[in-house]
Amino acid sequence: MTQRVAVVGGGWAGLAAAVEACSRGHAVTLFEMSAQLGGRARKVDLGETIVDNGQHILIGAYLQTLALMRRLGVPVDEALLRTPLALVGPDGGGLVLPRGPAVPAFARAVLNNLHWSWRDRFSLLGAATGWALRGFRCAPRLSVAELCAGISPRVLEQLIEPLCVAALNTPAHEASAGVFLRVLKDALFSGAGSADLLLPRRHLSALLPEPAEHWLTQAGAELRLGQRVMSIAPGDEGWSVDGERFDAVVLAAPALEAARLARPHAAAWANAAEALRYQPIVTVYAQSLGSHLPRPMVALSSQPAQYVFDLGQLRAQPGWLAFVISGAQPWVDRGMEATALATLAQARDELEAHLGEPLSLRRALTEKRATFSCTPGLVRPSQRIAPGLVAAADYCAGPYPATLEGAVRSGLAAIDALSA
Questions:
Q1: DSSP string covering 355-419
Q2: pLDDT, tens digit (0-9, with 9 covering 90-100), for 183-206
Q3: How far apart are CA 252 and CA 95, in angstroms?
């Protein structure tokens, strides 16, 4: 039976929900307060070039996101550069997974890492074997740092901590070990290629928001950009959104905005959404014409940035480098000017051999609420709010941290919840 479905929020979760609802024959109206779709994963026009509001990566295990992109007509193999998982520094040292099934590939990568001692290598393999034997499960209150207490300090510093902050955007001593293990499980046990890095060769809006906008328009959905929803209310037959009747509503807005709308009807849900705490991500864009990094993505060993991306190799933006600072609250507290200067100094120190012309700052962008803090024992708001009212967001209860895959899965699951 065709229903009128309102989707409030046009990020990746809201777009996934809208596409799925349309695919099932529902009449969809999508409300987005911004003039642009994509939420926290979208393009930013700097005038001289287009960058993203944050440098996201995908992995091969992000099956729902990749399937949705294909459904929207995105040529995934062209839009994403697929490489084996490689956490490698400017000098070539680090962990590189060979191709093939992820578990033996991981073991070979660790054993072949000559930058680590045998004690380093066996401490990691021993810990990983224990995680696998326990089904990648652990006590809910355990942090990543506690989970990895038996791993050598060098492996913690060079692999676990940067991997944790990249996956959960939360420092290892604060991050949920349970969620960290779930990410590792899906990467290592979802089949060959599941741990592969998928680096965007196009701006983020071209990966999903723009194709979704075109697809939804062609499917007859109504997109209301630049329109903030002021209130929702239950009625005799469904819900009203700013006085307009719908059969069901999907709240795909940021947590605080969703809590504002839901509070009159589900105070406990609103309290859970408002209780979430956040971690910022800073992306520093710089340019050095003639620069060429040894890989499109390079791990850094000092602070503030953990990774740098060579946009000249990825997107034909010669000399442009994107430095990513995850778990960035200490740097946000210092201010953007200090953070940008520290990043440029770090780049000159670690990347000197790979830079061309003098490195210059182009833009520093901050997403202050980039992700929720993925801490041990965190209680996240449920997907179901009230009859005919569901949430779709990466912060909803689920096994994933705040990732693109988590957002897409939540959007698809929201329509399943309405159907049920």
A1: --SPPEEEEEEEEEEEEE---TT--PPPSEEETTEEE-STTSSSSS-SSHHHHHHHHHHHHHHHH
A2: 988 887 777 788 899 999 999 999
A3: 37
Beta strand 4-8 with 27-32: parallel, antiparallel or unpaired?
parallel
CATH 3.40.50.200 describes domain 278-372: no
- CATH number of the structural domain 4-49+204-276+378-419: 3.50.50.60
Which tokens is 399 given?
């096994």
Sorted by sequence, the CB contacts under 8 Å of residue 191 that are 6+ apart come out as: 101, 102
pLDDT at 303: 92
- Residue 272 φ/ψ region, left for φ over 0, alpha for ψ in the -120 to 50 degree band, beta for the rest: alpha
E runs forming strands in 311-355: 320-325
User: What per-residue confidence (pLDDT) applies to 329?
Assistant: 94
pTM here? 0.94
Q: Where are the domains of the chain?
A: 4-49+204-276+378-419, 85-195, 278-372
| Cβ atoms < 10 Å from Cβ of 143 | 23
- Name the residue among 173, 163, 85, 88 with its Cα closest to residue 124: 163
With a cut of 70, list the residues of the chain below it in pLDDT.
none
- β pairing state of 278-287 and 360-372: antiparallel
pLDDT of residue 129: 94
